[in-house]
Design brief:
Its EC number is 2.7.1.11. The structure is a single chain. This protein has ten helices and 15 strands. The chain is of the alpha/beta class. The protein is elongated, with a radius of gyration of 23 Å. The chain binds 6-O-phosphono-beta-D-fructofuranose. 6-O-phosphono-beta-D-fructofuranose (F6P) binds next to loops.
Length: about 375
């Protein structure tokens, strides 16, 4: 190997810069050149968007200095510009999607890049697998704050997200207690409830609603009423943005909350529904992108560094078409094809769920 490229795709996650630093230093230690592609694959696919010629940048020891503790990604990222479904404008102004993978691979070859380390979630890893099947040497590094990627025990960014959500929930306890209110905290988690579950259990929330369990608000309302009877006038409900009510409707409101609805509104609907059912004043706090920004925890820094270094060891060992994966106590390799197009859901009988139920946390599926 003479030269490798790194790219970061999809939503950012704290720990990305640790991966970039470790991969760069480990590759340079082996005498390889390292370049970074800006904004997913855009820097290579659309160089005209980079008038200063910096769509692909040299990654030196200096350029990765002092970045491990920083959030975001020094390479930039994007959800657009998927080379397997690249948007191309037609003469009549309409847009069609074309598979530009071969063109992208040719661009790697022109620049004498021998391998790609793609750091991303399901979307980026699926693209990486497609490029690998077409002849490019690819190593994947799993990334998502949602922790919903298969075949790796966890991903960097998740620990930071849970930690920050927990700090916010702790603060909401004191104001909810003072006012005797119900506070609904909506956290990220499009397909899986890992962030909601872990932060909710760690903080002692009274109900947690996750995408894995279609919820009914009546058991949650009953939990709130019973707490009231015991003299606890406040309650905290943590909701994953992808949580959905049974039958797609919040019955007390008589309003449909279908899958087609934009993500992010469920917290408000839960708060309104609980007020209607209990008569209690409620407030909603949407943490949104706050839990994706900022500095990674020490745990996520270390995991990012381990993943970055493991990706380079994988290349040195001649591996191709694999993803580095956390398999405690080690980081090992799994086929890229085994992680794409699927989500790792919270097993509803896992010990964290059982612990939560023993703590009296309601999931909107059983009367308390
Ligand atoms: O996949 C991670 C995630 O944080 C989801 O939980 C969330 O729905 C999504 O990204 C939002 O990303 P964006 O606003 O960048 O499209």
């Amino acid at each position: 190997i003479k030269r490798i490229a790194l790219s970061t795709g999809g939503g950012d996650a704290p720990g990305l810069n640790a991966v970039i630093r470790a991969a760069t230093l480990a590759a340079r230690n082996r005498g390889w050149d390292v370049v970074g592609i800006r904004d997913g694959f855009n820097g290579l696919m659309a160089p005209e968007e980079y008038p200063r010629g910096d769509g692909v940048i040299e990654l030196s020891r200096e350029s990765v200095r002092g970045i491990v503790h920083t959030g975001g990604t020094i390479l930039g990222t994007t959800n657009r510009g998927n080379p397997t479904a690249y948007p191309v404008q037609q003469p009549d102004g309409s847009w069609v999607e074309e598979d530009r993978s071969d063109e992208l691979i040719a661009k790697f070859r022109e620049r004498e890049i021998d391998a790609l380390v793609t750091i991303g979630g399901d979307g980026s890893l699926t693209i990486g697998n497609h490029l690998h099947e077409r002849g490019l040497r690819v190593i994947g590094v799993p990334k998502t704050i949602d922790n919903d990627l298969e075949n790796t025990q966890s991903t960097f960014g998740f620990h930071t997200a849970v930690d920050f959500a927990a700090q916010c929930i702790d603060r909401l306890f004191s104001t909810a207690t003072s006012h005797g209110r119900v506070i609904v905290v909506e956290v990220m988690g499009r397909y899986a409830g890992w962030i909601a579950l872990h932060s909710g259990v760690a903080c002692g929330a009274h109900a947690v609603l996750i995408p894995e369990i279609e919820f009914d608000l009546e058991p949650v309302a009953e939990t709130i009423r019973q707490r009231e009877e015991r003299g606890a006038k406040f309650s905290i409900v943590v909701v994953a943005e992808g949580a959905r009510p049974q039958g797609g409707e919040v019955s007390v409101l008589g309003k449909a909350v279908g899958q087609a609805e934009k993500l992010g509104g469920v917290g408000q609907k839960v708060a309104d529904g609980l007020t209607a059912l209990t008569g209690k004043e409620s407030r909603v706090v949407v943490l949104g992108h706050l839990i994706r920004g900022g500095s990674p925890t020490a745990y996520d820094r270390l995991l990012g560094l381990r993943f970055g270094a493991a990706a380079i060891r994988a290349l040195e060992e001649g591996k191709d078409g694999i993803m580095v994966a956390l398999n405690p106590p080690t980081v090992d390799y799994v086929p890229l094809a085994s992680v794409t197009k699927r989500q790792k859901h919270v097993p509803i009988d896992c010990d964290t769920m059982l612990t939560a139920r023993d703590m009296g946390i309601n999931f909107g599926d059983e009367m308390p």
